[in-house]
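note to self — DONT lose this again. spent like an hour looking for the file last time. sequence + predicted structure for the chain T wanted, 723 res
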Amino acid sequence: PIIYYGDEIGMGDNIFLGDRNGVRTPMQWTPDRNGGFSRGDPARLYLPPIMDPVYGYQAINVEAQARSPSSLLNWTRRLIAVRQAHKVFGRGTLTFLYPDNRRILAFLRQHENETVLCVANLSRSAQAFSLDLSAFRGQVPVELLGRSTFPVVREGPYELSLQGYSFYWFHLQDVQALQAAAQPVPELSPDYQTLVMGSAWTDFVRGRSCTILLQDVLPKRLPQQRWYRAKDVALRGVTLAAHTELSADGQSWLLGLFEAKLAGEQKPQQYFVPLALDWKEVRLQPAPVQAQTIAKARKGPREGTLYDAVADDRFILELIARVRANDSIPFGNGTLRFRATSAFAKATPPEAPSVRRIGAEQSNSSVLVEDYMVLKLYRRIETGIQPEVEMGRYLTETAGFANAPAVLGSVEIEQSARRGAAVAIMHAFVRNQGDGWSFTLNYLDRYLDEAALVAPSVRAAVPEQAALPEPEVAHAVYLNQMQQLGIRTAELHRALCPAEAPAAFRPEPIAANDVAQWVKRVRGEARAALAALRRASRTLAPAARELAAKLLGKQSAVLERIGAEIPPSVGGMKIRIHGDYHLGQVMVAQNDFYIIDFEGEPRRPIAERRAKDAALRDVAGMLRSFDYAARAALDAVQPQPDRMSELERLVEVWRDLASARFLQGYLETVAGSPAHPADPAAADALLRLFVLEKALYEIQYELANRPAWAAIPLRGAVQLLVP
């Protein structure tokens, strides 16, 4: 494609001059004299520049458009960057499609394993149309300019609409490559097994159909669930450990606690799976039920669907009603207790609440009940006091901490005074703008987009206008918000360090033995990380390999350096902490933050998650989260090899500023609290230790799961360990 000079800013021409006799029309660089093309006297020019009120140099010029992210100039730059990033546009095959609307031009460009779909509206009015994309069933169209994902391609026509003279270009990508961005997609035509049902759930549990469910259906179904924790271990069998029936208004559900027996592990994992039955064929069920279907059901001539009850609105509303009534029912050898908090009565339920499943949850199942509450159903059931329930009740009913959603109630299995497990928790709904991770990535996306548009050539031509503002000025609003996040984090730690509290929340002094154990644990993480680096060093990218060499070359010195600057006694108190604190665990709401998900690190035992620890461990988790956000933002930028080093420098400056302002807000607010060491040097050394521990853990995780990201934690570890 060819762009004539001036077209990139929408420059016009003076049609009344006639022929310019081979002399080029002056380029409109600035709104200054002669459009910045010449500093000569306008009267002495061979022919004047364009002075039209619409297209003249005072209205249309490079300087003005370079400063506007939405200008034609910067749009053209993005267009060219996308084309340069995809060889398919220069080397790919061309295949025309035939939409049902003749005003739409649609075609495919394909090269090697890359496919791009282009559609354009050739008319001046908005148009709706459909395309036959059945050959790409299961793929997700990703718009190339904004990287926005569109609905997955399924059987049948793919529906789209376009404004007049507008276009789309989509990169068709595999669903698995976009799991983080796209909604989960159920099987398109699964082959469900048919189970013969009896008159009641009790008949089902005792009959052959339950045996088929345990032996044939669930062993295939469980590993497909996002909340299943043992995907990397062979499943040897499934049993029904406990069950009960929940009934209301002629509808009943089977609440089952299923045990998954895993290869090489003596203790099975327990999963809570409530079952619902509806006498309607699978193909006639609504989408939520189809996505949660477990098997077909048959009773005589009737055909129905056996599915996970989380897809049944009536089941969700019945759980809420039982909690409101503080009910209890038998469950195996124990009792299933529905317990409301004092905050439940203060919440006003809607008359006919709508129920919506939240697809972002990974380890559990969450349901939003209008603007009333969020119900989280725990799937992996662990014996013991669930930290989220315990912490939430304390913050709601005892501490009165306002910046965590109030806990309205819970559902728990009670087997004895010391044995039990949580099944569900209910939080008050807080209207929000999303979590801190998405908020930060969206912010960085906008910032880097603007930074990438200020091209070096423009800075050289008009440096005082095109230069980016100072980082503190450019990020002022975001930095103020991170300071507020630091304040809320410190307020949480103050609330968890009361003068008087139940034993589970009573602060304990940080002893010399605690510090020694922390240092020992970090050295253990270091040895494991160094071993993993030795195994993977040859396969690492050059930048990561260079960082790994710095650690591996000084292994003894690295291990000796860990904890060397920490005094034996640091002071301060151990308290209950969040335990899995990062940007994804805070919700942004009206320029404030609400802290959520006090479950702790799900892969750690409950006893560890409930143990008292240093509050600075939460702070370290948030600081590492800023580092990861910087890398994720860079990965989302359109490939620009000539600008990448500059963009990396910009996000590193942002990361350092965000970390500093978060720490400023935290330290100013936590000052004087027993939860924080009084000695600043000891507190700083302890924080560096926890940041290092987090980075060492991340090195092992990334080497095993995302080697391309290994440089992120490696860089953090090198900064702390290699002088």
